[in-house]
Specification:
Blueprint lengths: L4 E4 L2 E4 L10 H5 L2 E9 L2 E2 L2 H14 L8 H14 L5 E8 L16 E7 L6 H6 L1 E5 L20 H12 L4 E5 L5 E4 L3 E8 L2 E6 L10 H12 L4 E3 L4 H5 L3 E6 L3 E8 L2 E2 L7 H14 L6
Length: about 290
Amino acid sequence: MAEKTIWFDGKLVPEGEARVSVFDHGLLYGDGVFEGIRAYNGRVLKMRTHLERLQQSARHIQLQIPYTIEQLEDAIREVLAANDLTDGYLRLCVTRGVGTLGLNPYLCDNPTVFIIADSITLYPQEMYTSGLKIVTTSTIRNHPAALSPRVKSLNYLNNIMAKIEAIEGGGAEGIMLNHMGYVAECTGDNIFIVQQRHGWPTLVTPPAHAGILEGVTRNLVIELAQEADLPVEETDLTRHDLFIADEVFLTGTAAEVIPVSNIDGRSVGSGTPGPITLQLNDAFRKLMKHCPEN
């Protein structure tokens, strides 16, 4: 496998030279923020939206990114070209930088910024046809009063523990509830259900106050549904709502739009991807052909 080129603190370097110090607080404490970004046909999906969210996450934790949005846009295009990628996945990370072994973030002088460009396959292709088997985990989403779920931080241990539970429970993904027992999201994806409401199929997803990260793909799918005159509701969901749903699917930058066929051993609907899921997935694929960057 050819060595990747990494954009690291303002320069393109071979991956073997893209080294983070053992004293970097991103490594020592998970002190930093990141974005996962997707490129299609040479264009970067919602690039400005991702970078604005990165800035907001950094501002929340009082981390000053030493580059403007415009400079990061140029860097993203530069690293894609350097790796000869027109379709791929980017991981943009900003750490607090090198500091002491203590927690004090103000002793870190310069943030570390790097961008990786590569391909990604989150789930086997057959799962996009047959659907995922997912399970509810006992590990709940972090309490929003501890850390806002809108901060996309480098510390994903909460999600990782739930992912371990899901895999050991025979699932490809894990549903995480919030501190009130409502459905929040999966370990790396947002969740949608389709229910008949007032005689019409309605798309339903947990709201921001449920303790979710408002995914870029999530919001894009909501826009696609509204354009197709499909009713959309953002409301609290319980496991009961998932169990009786006609359809369930997940969304995420890496996952894109993927159907769910089984939850906690129960078949979803007919056990195969439903018509609304297929419709929205088709609309998403068509949109990616010209891939909006803003």
